[in-house]
Amino acid sequence: MKVVKNYLYNAFYQVFILLVPLITTPYLSRVLGPTGVGINSYTNSIIQYFILFGSIGINLYGNRQIAFVRDNREKLTQTFYEIFILRIITILLAYFAFEIFVMSVDKYQIYYLAQSVSIIAAAFDISWFFMGVENFAVTVFRNLIIKIITLVSIFTLVKSTDDLVIYILILSLSLLLGNMTLFPSLHKYIGRFSLRKINVRQHILPSLILFIPQIATQVYLVLNKTMLGSMVSVQSAGFFDQSDKMIKMVLAVVTATGTVMLPHVANAYANGEHERTRHYLYKSFNFVTSLSVPMMFGLIAVTPKFVPLFFSNEFIQVIPIMMIESVVIVLIAWSNVIGTQFLLPTKRTNQFTISVVLGAIVNLVVNIPLIFMYGAIGASIATVISELTVTLYQLFVIRKIVNYRSLFIDVNKYLFAGTIMFLTVFILDGYLPSNWLMILIEIMLGIIVYVLMLIVFKVKIVDDLKKIIK
Q1: How many domains does the chain contain in total?
Q2: Is residue 233 part of a domain?
């Protein structure tokens, strides 16, 4: 039950941190327009590179290392401070590099400076610690007030395109304040530390090893927006970013299992329980498939009606982008289970690294011609191709470790149920008027049809859920 509880906490947290842009997007799309949204998207994509290089893989590495020593208070204290001090140093170096960058550009300087508060915020991000000790509640509740203040600030202070800098500052400062609120909860887990015993250097190499896959991951998460902004226009970057926000919102519910299961599997693996780690893999894979399939089909079905209502008619070009990009929901769900929940905690870091590096290379190679020919639609196609590459390679490397039949149990049933749900909603969508009530009816009908199909097909997860409820 602890895993289920932590999953719910983390799913709520992941959705919650995306909730501010979700709630504000319809308003901001109309106030800032495609150009304002595009400038924010493009400049933020550049800032993410500095945050990435300043973090050097510490989020994944810190989560795992804390999970390894969480039962020993003295080791836990020392490990936390060593990793935290390392992060402070690397973020300072990244900010120095940013200062050099911002002096060398002659466009969007004021926006870059406003975005740079996020780099400082990254130095104080200790969510990896609480994820390592499997306390997901604190990250949810500590940020609640900050997010509410953020929402109020946006609707109060952002009134026109002239307020773009204010909007960026609100988001950046909310990250900083949100991260700072986590520190008061540390005293429950760690004690005083001796500076003489601190050995930061021992963490540099292993965190750098995990940094390589994060670089590659960031390439096909952010590079699309950077390339669109440079090769096409900031408006195209904005269109792709709007689609990406919705996909990430849906994915947050699915990939929340990765953050929850990583310390759980790492702890089991450290205790030599290898069969148990495979059992976790099968369970997680089945669970995320059951969620990601209907989410993919459902989003594709309602997108034509959803986009103009949510983003406004100025963002009609988002429709085909989002429909294509929806395919990655299932692909990322699978690669998240295999990579984050199995390869990383079982110390198969090299295989995980190769998978995301391959994805990044494929993304870069196919992005250039596809963006040149099709703009933002090409970027969405490139994203699907790169995620497919990652997933296929990870499935290949675990072929001798796992039983594919156990891994893909009921997948065909989920896909068939999802297809029936999609056809039902898509056909109905053509007859219903375009408003929020109709979209809600379509979503509810889709859920009912999908669940009924799972019961009819007697999928295993239905029995598992009955046991959890009991």
Answers
A1: 1
A2: yes
Within-domain flag for 324: yes
Least confident of 212-216, 343-347, 445-449: 212-216
Among 41, 48, 10, smallest CA distance to 25 is for: 41
For 349-379, the pLDDT digits (tens) are 788 888 888 988 898 899 999 999 999 999 9
The domain of 327 spans 2-409
Task: Decide if 436 is inside a domain.
Answer: no
Residue 438 lies in a domain: no
pTM: 0.74
